[in-house]
Design brief:
297 residues, MetI-like fold, 13 helices
Length: 297
Amino acid sequence: MDRAFLRRCFANRRISVSVAILAAVALAAVIGPWLSPYSHDQLGPLRFAGPGAVHWGGTDLLGRDVMTRALMGARISLLVGLFGAVVSLIIGVSYGAISGYVGGKTDAMMMRLVDILYSIPRLVFVIVLISVLDLQVRAALVRLGHPEWAPQAKFILLFAGLGAVQWLAMARIVRGQVLSLKERQFVLAARALGQGHAAIIVRHILPNLVGIVIVYLTLTIPVVILEESLLSFLGLGVQPPMASWGTLIAQGAQTINPVKSYWWLLVVPAAAMALTLMALNFLGDGLRDVLDPRARR
């Protein structure tokens, strides 16, 4: 990554602002709960206390500090987003590169498998996976000597399910690019020099995919975070006393009624999630502009 590219990135206002916001959110998620005088599951005497000097984000039904729980929720949501993005990167790039480079019947068969998996609704697949395997994973964790992890079996299946469905679009994008790149002169020259197929893919084709992969990766993370939040909202994700932005928003939505509205229970986690998702999308748009030579001209 040369200095000229870094200068173009930080000259782009959307990239610089988005990086600053994401760095602040990540730093707050990592060190915020440690600096807070409250624990995310600590019960308190003040129930439904509004935001103030003692509790910056107010408290919930059990007197727990909402700001601390939102920071802990940031850890879970960002971790799920990064995990889904990494799985998408590893499986999608490998699968798409092999399919596009080999071509022919192998490419057709591999892409038909992707089409079949695409026909399955992603969230329905994850919901079924969690519902069917929850008890089996709990029992397996107990047999492995980790009974303390058993209550979080749904969370583990959530990781696996979201990671298993996010690589499909990446594979299609990479496959289309490889179909074009493998006919370029530098690839033909590498073949003429006797380089193996694996070396050609790793040394010549994949480096030319870095730009589009990075852009799509920044757009994959917010999709995974939203899907995790929806599943946690439905009670299929993180289990109490742990919390993610989705579970906090679900708890806040339950307190909204015509008589009394405890708005901070909904606004604090929703604002944190919205700010993070907006920054990730702006980062992807900015990187696309920087890496697109037509946009630079």
